[in-house]
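seq as requested:
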Amino acid sequence: MLTIATGFATLSIFAGYTADVYRGMQDQAIYGEMLGHMTLYKTGLREQGRLQPEKWILTTYDIERATDAVRRAHPEARVFARLSMKGLVSNGRVSTIFIAEGIDPQDMRILRGPLADASGALESDKPVGVSLSRGLSSLLSLNEGADLSLLGSTIHGQANALDATVIDTYDTGTLATNDMSIYVPLELGRSLLDAPGQADRLTVVLPDLDQLDEVRARIQEELGKEELVLTVQPWRDAAVTYRQVKAMFDLIFAFMFAILLALCMMALVNVVGMNVVERSREIGALRALGMRQATTRHLFTAEAMWMVVLGCTVGLALTLLLRAGINSAHLGFTPPNSTDRVPLTVGIDPLRMALIAAAFAVGGTISAWFTARGAARRPIIDTLGHV
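struct tokens:
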């Protein structure tokens, strides 16, 4: 019973930890990276957009038709125009590369959701105010209020430059992008790219994430009616890090589950086997009084089931105690290639806990049944004479 309780608690704690990691990464992708719930863009933009940006950009007419299609699919959906750009940023003395995200300041607050007040927010009353990643700010010695120049190419291939002012700094959370990222107002980005009223993609936010797949299918249908060839990409497909981390943790969980399940079943078989041996004369007496072989098997199987039930119950109590202790300890760590400290917290994953209990119950029942089967088939005379 203690073996089962320990195995159940170990797997439940790890399942709760991964559930919290998944939720945190989901919020970071949807709100922190502002991926929203879906992204609409011209099919082929990812592969050929850099070579022919003018061909793959969404015109004002495209944006209006796509927005209408989304709202017909779900009237409460919100649609926001986005524009990506890159080039050189200069403080007047030195220059370095940048990757910028153009977005309307009001749209940015909505897209950030619960992170709306986080650092890096743009301001509507500052049309040339930009937010720099902290690594880039440190690299160019650009603090709040400093002036800078953005140099890039328009969608027609011509050179262009604009002046801007730093209004805030933020941390991207990853070392790879913390020294090159910028948030710029959408209209400022359009001016730099000479793309008035245009965008390279649309971000869709839904009131309920559970409706994602259903709404996505309806949006594809409505876009077909408008004869718009757009890719509708859910946030999961755009969040590469989320998918990779989730796949890794799922594999680790499956590996741990297989090992602990095997250990618990071996312990249960050993206990049932010892129980059968020590009660051989009892089994013989009951069989001599008329108990059938099936009833004998059911007796030991029921006892094993009770051990599993009690073990999982004790394991649940142990899980709750360990979870409370871990969460109150305020532990944390900094992941590889990251700049932020991540708190180590353990949540509750009811689905996986139910699957663990079910697997232990099924495995324990089968193990006990096969063990008791051999004892029930022994001749009565042999069991009565067992010493």
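The radius of gyration is 31 Å.
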